[in-house]
Amino acid sequence: MDTARQRILEQFRIKHSLSASELSITLGTTPANIRHHLGVLLQEGVIEVAGQRQSGGRGRPTHLYSLTQQARAHNLDQLAGALLDELLEDLQPTERLAALKRIAKRLGGQSTARGSLTQRLNACVMRLNGLNYQARWEARSSGPRLVLAHCPYAVILPQHPELCQLDASLLEGMLGASVIQTAKLAPSRQGGKVCIFTIGTG
């Protein structure tokens, strides 16, 4: 199923640059809704501000957006979505979970849960940042937690919410501890959105 952001990206593939108002008219949705999605795509590095267009009146110039060079160079979001559909479509829930755990193990690479929890957290953060999660961990009285400031799967997450379970399996495999997701793309004080996983210490 298409998402609003996928439809926006399709418009950028048709036309080199577009404004929020042009996208709003083309897609039949509100400018505020378009600006929200453009903000997410900007944060994800999929689009960029390509220039400005002077308005007819005294108002501020209109921003024009376009795909980044990296986004124009591939079609990986749609490929990944299609592969997940093909892989998971006919599986029972337990089989789907097992498949996600196998994928998570591949993503985790050669990392193994060794050393103290602090050492494992540091190694986990290094691996996650190699996978573009912009991760960090924080010590809390209730136990440490991992903060992921970038979701590499944001474009296809609406059709594949099971990718959050993939992240949890990835973390559990690298840490050798249970994790619970306590925030999903929640607004951050530093700007942007974060996913947060609390680490079990028991």
A few lines on this structure:
With about 200 residues, the protein is α+β, with helices and mostly antiparallel strands. Helix content is about 45%, strand content about 20%. Strands 3-4-6-5 form a four-stranded antiparallel β-sheet, with helices on one face. Strands 1-2 form a two-stranded antiparallel ribbon.
Q: How would you describe the overall organization of this protein?
A:
The chain has 202 residues and is an alpha+beta fold. It has 2 domains: 4-72, Winged helix-like DNA-binding domain superfamily/Winged helix DNA-binding domain (Arc Repressor Mutant, subunit A), CATH 1.10.10; 76-199, 2-Layer Sandwich (Muramoyl-pentapeptide Carboxypeptidase, domain 2). The chain is 46% helix and 18% strand. It is built from 8 helices and 6 strands. Strands 3-4-6-5 form a 4-stranded antiparallel β-sheet, covered by helices on one side. A hairpin with a 6-residue loop joins strand 3 (135-138) and strand 4 (145-148). The N and C termini lie far apart (40 Å). The mean pLDDT is 86.
Distance between the termini: 40 Å
* Cα radius of gyration in angstroms: 19 Å
Strand fraction equals: 15-25%
Helix-strand topology string: HHHEEHHHHEEHEE
Helix-strand layout with pairing:
Blueprint: H1 4-14, H2 20-27, H3 31-44, E1 47-53, E2 62-67, H4 69-72, H5 76-88, H6 93-108, H7 117-130, E3 135-138, E4 145-148, H8 163-175, E5 179-187, E6 193-199
Antiparallel strand pairs: 1-2, 3-4, 4-6, 5-6
Helix pairs in contact: 2-3, 6-8
